[in-house]
Design a protein that fits this description.
Number of helices: 8
CATH superfamily of the largest domain: Response regulator
Number of strands: 12
Order of helices and strands: EHEHEHEHEHEEEEHEHHEE
Largest sheet: 5 strands, parallel
CATH topology of the largest domain: Rossmann fold
Strand content: 15-25%
CATH class of the largest domain: Alpha Beta
Shape: globular
Low-confidence stretches: none
CATH architecture of the largest domain: 3-Layer(aba) Sandwich
Structural class: alpha/beta
Helix content: 25-40%
Number of domains: 2
Mean pLDDT: 86
Length: 231
């Protein structure tokens, strides 16, 4: 059995069993909980490497579990929920969730999200240099190049790129990005963000109209994919 520990929290017994079976088949050590209070107790006892969390839980909601967890732990959290509305996704991501899957979902997709979250978990320090197949960004020197040519990024563009790159693979909400770059009073000014993202893509993306690296999740936020994988 792997030493990677995963806690699955859901109030549906069939889902708990299915996820436990599939995760253990891939040699993860799995614990389960069926309500929010039990989840918080197990997080403290088991110290999992990753949490798969439903939102609609008895005793304490998944969002309350997440809020409590983020006061003392940064372990990756993947939300799995039947709630498919943007407000629920945005609320969970703003509270610190790393990813969000809407039920029903395929086991294959969940496992891919689990592997990605765990890869980020083991990266204890983010590299100062980010290399993609099309461009390179050196944060220590403040230099960006595309196909060997130096690309000029404005100070604001550097900040946006930095937030997204250092959250590689994670969905960053518009509100979070605006707050980190401009400050808390600008968290509803999504127009600013769209303009700057357009400029960043023109400078770094091989096809700005079909971005490979700086992806948009419509109505929610942005995600940086370092290897420029499938759109």
């Amino acid at each position: 059995m792997s030493d990677v520990r995963i806690l699955v929290v859901d109030d549906e017994v069939q889902i708990l069993r299915a996820l436990k079976t599939n995760l253990e088949a891939r040699e993860y050590a799995v614990s389960t909980a069926s309500d929010g209070e039990e989840a918080l107790r197990l997080i403290a006892d088991v110290n999992p490497d990753l949490l798969i969390l439903d939102l609609g839980l008895p005793k304490k909601s998944g969002l309350d579990v997440l809020r409590s967890l983020r006061t003392w732990s940064d372990i990756p959290v993947i939300i799995v929920s039947a709630r498919n509305g943007d407000p629920d996704k945005i609320a969970a991501l703003d509270e610190g969730a790393d990813d969000y899957l809407t039920k029903p979902f395929s086991i294959g997709e969940l496992m891919a999200r689990v592997r990605a979250a765990l890869r980020r978990r083991v990266q204890t320090e983010q590299s100062a240099i980010v290399v993609t197949p099309d461009f390179e960004v050196d944060f220590s020197k403040g230099v960006a190049t595309r196909r060997g040519e130096v690309v000029h990024l404005t100070p604001l563009e550097w900040k946006i790129v930095g937030v997204l790159v250092h959250s590689e693979g994670r969905l960053v909400t518009q509100r979070s990005l605006l707050s980190e770059v401009w400050g808390p009073h600008y968290d509803n000014e999504s127009g600013y963000l769209r303009v700057h993202m357009t400029h960043i893509r023109r400078k770094l993306e091989p096809e700005p109209a079909r971005p490979r690296y700086f992806r948009t999740e419509p109505g929610i936020g942005y995600r940086f994919i370092a290897d420029g994988g499938p759109r």
